[in-house]
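Curious: why these numbers?
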Amino acid sequence: MNGPVAPHTPNSPNIRDNKPLLVTCLSIFVGVVLLLVGFGLGFGAGSLFATPVSAGSSEGAAGEQLYPKFGVFWEAMDLLYRDFYGDLPPTEEATYGAIKGVLGQLDDPNTSFMTPQEADYFRFSLQGSFEGIGARVDWDQEYDTVRVVEPFENQPAWNAGVRRDDLIIEIDGESVIGTDLTSAVSKIRGPKGSTVALTILRMGEDEALTIEVVRDTIELPTIASEMLEGDIAYVQLNSFNENAGELVRQAVGDALEQNAKGVIFDLRGNPGGLLSQAVEVTNVFVQDADVLIERFADGEEEVYSTEDPAIAKDIPLVVLVNQGSASASEIVAGAIQDNERGQVVGVTTYGKGSVQLPQTLSDGSILRVTIARWYTPADRTIDGTGLEPDISVEISDEQLEAGEDPQLDKALELLAAPE
């Protein structure tokens, strides 16, 4: 994932005052973060920018199974296009609809399809700042609509009143129930200064709410760090882009030079990204140890281990996680737990334990296919269930609005305690 990389800022403004704490396919804003979560959070070595894959044939993997039965499909299409009384969809839309129809039978929201327009926006979203509402969403299978995973503090959605676990049922008056996340994302995103009306259902509320959000430019740094009270270093990682490991190693190294007595590593709201960077980030704190196990459909498996010296293998460590911590974030937190390297504090994580391979098709569209699942070093899976913290600490919207952070407070308490 090639995301924007902000400069390392060891002397950034006080994080507890500014509260950019709850930030995350690559894991999604409606901008980059929305796309990352909607289109998956964990990438294999795919071909987002590479030469398109070749067209299918009767000799391909699908051809052996589908071609003998595809005559029925063409029979139906011939009848439809010959006899239908009304307007038929453009051929591209019909093709994309057929692909999405097959994917809808898989019970795997992470295997997904992007039209050329959506794919172009996705590629662009990996390279700069973005315009949107500043929230991560996914597709709620139970309610068959969009669910807000994380509205980021001080961003348009949060400021307008959108909250975690809100169900978006209409966008600008158009129902999105029973559609798909990709099309919903394309309706929510838009240029800075424009307004989108979100009709939501909220837990505990009897009636739907309509909230108007003015879109803006959304920018989050890859990393932020500072020294907190008691010589405790705070390092917050917002995404696992191609520079994540290097940036974390630099930030922690700077903290050690300032004689830090402990490290709080904040992965809250981090949607993940590159698997290789999850290994490199873990390697900052853990040495000569396994990080994850990756298993493929054919039963083959690969164990990823640390390879370099760890610069902070002994300093007391607390990792913060929440519902928005996904994929690579869960890999790191799981490795820290299983190697008994530190304590994980917060709430149950997102539960994204699969790897997608993105392939560019001949017309510029992208098909992302789940090719593997990963497990923690102790062979635990978190896919669909999430990772349980060692110490559970909830944080309410009311506490956030009041500028309180009990999860961070707990981490400080643990690191301040005498050994």
